[in-house]
Amino acid sequence: xxxxxxxxxxxxxxxxxxxxxxxxxxxxxxxxxxxxxxxxxxxxxxxxxxxxxxxxxxxxxxxxxxxxxxxxxxxxxxxxxxxx
Length: 84
Known about the structure:
By secondary structure, this protein is mainly α. The chain has helices spanning 3-23, 30-48, 60-83. The radius of gyration is 12 Å and the shape is globular.
């Protein structure tokens, strides 16, 4: 993995984490937290979305949407755990 790939992955993670924080109200974790939530969300979406038959194609926009869906799922699960 080159430095360009790492920077793009971090940017996609940051955008996806920020979007997920906006969608799931009250769960923003700052810049580093949003990057982590976005990257972990992309991993979660990579596990879940293909199993249900949802494919978004390639490209940066599809990667952001994919990671955002996973990050929203992750934040929703965090919200449920904190509530219990």
